[in-house]
Structure formats: C-alpha cells, structure tokens
Fold:
Amino acid sequence: MLEIGSVVDGKYKILRIVGKGGMSVVYQAVNEKANKIWAIKEVRKDGVQNFEVVKQNLIVETELLKRFNHPNLPSIIDVIDSEGSFLIVMDYIEGNSLSKALETGGAQSQDDVIEWSKQLCDVLGYLHSRKPPIIYRDMKPANVMLKPDGNISLIDFGTAREFKSASVEDTTCLGTQGYAAPEQYGGHGQTDARTDIYCLGATMYHLVTGHNPSKPPYEMYPIRHWNPTLSSGLEEIIIKCTQRNPDDRYQSCSELLYALEHYQDLDIENKKAQNRKWKIFLTTVILMLVMALAAVGFKIAANSETSAEYEAFMKEAQTASLDIMNADPKEAQEAYDTANTAYQNAIKNNPGKIDAYQGMLEMYLSDNELTGAEYSEFKNQITGNEDKIIASDKDGYADLCKELGDGVLFMLAKNANIRQGAEEEWYKRAQQNHSDPAQQDEDAFWVSFSQVCRDPFKTTPMGDPAMTYREYYDLVKNIIKSDHFASRNEYQKLRCFDYILAQLSKYDMAMIGTTDDKVTFDEFYNLVDEIQASVEGLMNDGASKERITNDNKTNNLYQNNIKNIEKIQKEKKSIKEAKGGSGTSDSAQSSQSQQATEG
Structure:
C-alpha cells in the first residue's frame, strides 16, 4: 500500500485512503503544483492471481474513459505502471455510492430514484451513442456515486465493452448476479443497449424497495408488493425494463427517459381518473353540443396532425444528423442541410418544445466549431420564442442559453465580428432562468469572464472607464483560481488564457503604475508568471499533453499562448535592462504608463 504523505510520480501527494476493494485501494491525492485533488486507484501485483489479466482489464477501462467527455463520468488523468503496482489517476468524486445510501437509509425516496435514473439514462444514452456503442453491463448501486450537489457519477468500467454488430453473442459472462440481464450469461445473444436498460431497471428496483435482487429470494416482485404507496407507473416501467426478452424492454435510453419523465401518466389511479373525466366530457358533449361534435373532431385531428408532423420532422433531423459523421464531405453536407431544414420545420411547427432547439444546437457544436452563420441562424430561431420555451421548460431554456454561451465563447471564430461579447448575454439569460443556486453561481462566473474577453477598458458615453486596471487585475486573479475555471478541458482553458493574454499584452504598460487604480510592476508580472505556470503545467500532465498534441486546434492555441507569454516576458526583460537589471521604479512606471496612454 502507498504511504500517507508519500509522493507518487514526483507530483501526486497521498492524503488518505477513501476506499478498499478485493484487490485495490483508492486514495485521495493532491497535485500540489496544480492545486488539484485527484483519486488514485492502486492494484498491487502481489496477492493478485492472474495479475496480467487484471491489468489488461484495467487498461481497457482506462482507455475507454479517456475517450469520454460527459459530466456524469470521471476523467482519467494518468496511468502509472510501476514495478510493484498499477496506478490509475482520475477525477476525485466527492460523495458516497448509492449502495452506501441503501446501507444507511434503506429504500430511497421515489422522487430521488426517478431523478437519479433519468441522469443514468442520459449517461448510458451517451455511451450507447459512441462509435462504436459502449455497453456498460454492470449497472448497480455500488457503481453509482452520489455527489453532495445531488447529481450522480457512474464509475468502474471494468466490464464495459464495445458493441460489435457482427458478433452473435458475448465471449465472456460479466456483470453482477441479480442485476445482470439473461443475455449476459451466454447463449442468449450478445449484450447491447437493452442489456444496460435491464441492469438499470434492476438498480431502480433495489433503490426504491430496499430489496437486493442479488440476494434471496433472487426475484424482482412488482415494487408495490413491498410498498403499496409506490407509483404504479414506476412499477410498470421497472417491469418493462427487466423483461427476459430484450425485444420486450424499452429499446433505447431515450425511450426509457421519456417514460420516467411521464411516469405519473402510467399510474392506474391517474388512468382511471382520466377515463372518468373522458366519459363525463363525452356525455356532456353529446347532451349539450351534438352539433359541435364535428368541430371538436376537426380540432382533435388538427392537433394530432400537428404533433405527428413535429415528430416526423424530428425523426428526419435526427436520422440525418447521424449520417453527418459517417459520410464523405459531399454527403455529409447534404445530411447537414437536411437536418438543419428539418429542425427549422419542427421549431416552426411547435416553437415552445425545446428538444428541436437542443438537437439543432448539438448538431452545430458537434464538430467543436460554431460558424457565424450557424450562430445567426440559431439566434433567429430562438428569438421571439423565449416566452414559449420558458413556459414549457424554464431550466431547459437556461441550459440551452448556457450551452450557446459556451459555443460563442469557445467555438465561435475568435475574430468573428458577430461575437462582440455575445456570450455574456446568453450567460446572463442562463443565470436569470436557472432554478439551482449552484448553477446560477456558475453562470455568474462566466458572465464575469465574458467581461475579460472584450476590451474591458472601453470608455462609456459619459467618458468613464468600464473597468479600472486594478479591477481587471483582481477579476483575472479570481477567475484563474476558480473551481469553475479548473473544471474546463484543455482547449477551453487555453482559449480563456488566450483572451486574458491578449489584454495583458495590449495594456501592459498602461496597467502598471503607482495609483490606486493600477497595479505594481511585480504584481503584473507575477500574474503573467502564474498564467505561464498554468499553461506549461498542462504539458506536465500526461493525459493533458496527449490531448493537446493530438488535436491541431488545441495545439495551435497552446503555441499561441506561449508566444504571447514570451512577448510579454520580453517586454519585462527590456524594462529591467533599461533600468540596469533592477526592474522599474514607481516613478518610471508612472512615466511609462503615461507615455503608453498618450501614445
């Protein structure tokens, strides 16, 4: 075992043990240079039979996780294959597993289970949408971490596999008895997305009833057998998830997610109430409005036709979107145009329904680039429909604004005239409409950062500066130390530094001075040194270095950051040389700042 206080690989200091398994130990560690907490999973070679087999499974797990980018999945940072052990450095997930929640609290709240299940549907749907699809195969409470903010994270990918369309069945039987689907035991065909739906159904059953399906009586009764107050709609969903025949289950996570979002519609009591209302309505119509029945019929038909048209447009758009990634450039452009037109038609058909906007924006951002034309098109689609979207799904609208703000900030061409601080507008809308205070706090952070991206010292019509140099300096200091900033990927961090360095390079001499609204020579260049350490520190991390060097856009941005830093540091050197190597005095700073301002 690793010693508490020891340093691994010259940079990870072991703080404490956070968990133990049959053949592994998980530690909390800190990278003191980057001031970042990580988790380190250690599998020692001694005492583990067939270590090479175990090691290969771990390598498969880490390679899978390196390819993922989802808020409910941990990221792999580093892999260290030492003489005595195999170490995996990954995101530290604060919280406890859902199995721990079951141990301490028994059956969980129905509302909580449904919310967790919707998040799990989203992350499983993400895995199933990879090329090729990833089948998780080991969904159970022990593999789901509940974080302090109420969100969950899916861990342990040791049994995940890529779906192979040519395979007849799996070569190995992996999974946990009680949660595993019949096809996981061999001889029943290969595992696919519906296998994960079965495992999720078994997990929901355990969480909402407190009865472990992997223990006697080894059978999943209808959940109201254990608790009659539970929803019959949820009971129906779990029963359908856990059918032995995959064809009888939900066929996709999006289908299951829709059912979970409307589980109350499936309740027996709700169905009876709806039937009673329907009968009363029909009787009233027959007795009082016989002559109007035809008009009512026309109205129902029109609504049904409108709904059918919307679904047809969405299906056309989603099908074409899938073709974009799997076609040659000409066919990809045709698929893009088809999907774009279909999303526009869906929005026109039902401007208050949010999934058409989500699909269109996801398609625009899927290649990590937002063109000026795409931004203008999406803004035109959403403008004028805000009230309808908010009335339908206020938080969904806020999420949409946040995602669009990210697209403008990180993916829109840096020199695009259309940008001009547009991300600030969308972050503000997100902040105004998010109901979660934590999400509002993150939105407010990016509102502040957007002020850094444009010229922060531009004077107002009254002749007053929008921001003093001291205020700008303090804002940048707070931003680069924020957890919101630290959670971004390498490209986004480098893009943020690019914005900051552009302003520091432009206003370096104007910012330095002795008055209260300016910063000292040492303060200014200490900030530059801090940014330089952060930028170069990305290349000291194995996983980050690999992602930077393997992506041309990120690598070009890194090189541009280095050039801007060298330019600023060169200015510092010339100032020191001009003052005999001792830096610059306060009076010299003031004089140079005045000259820079007048120039």
Remarks:
- The CA atoms of residues 122 and 417 lie 36 Å apart.
- Residues 166-173, 292-296, 582-599 have pLDDT under 50 and may be disordered.
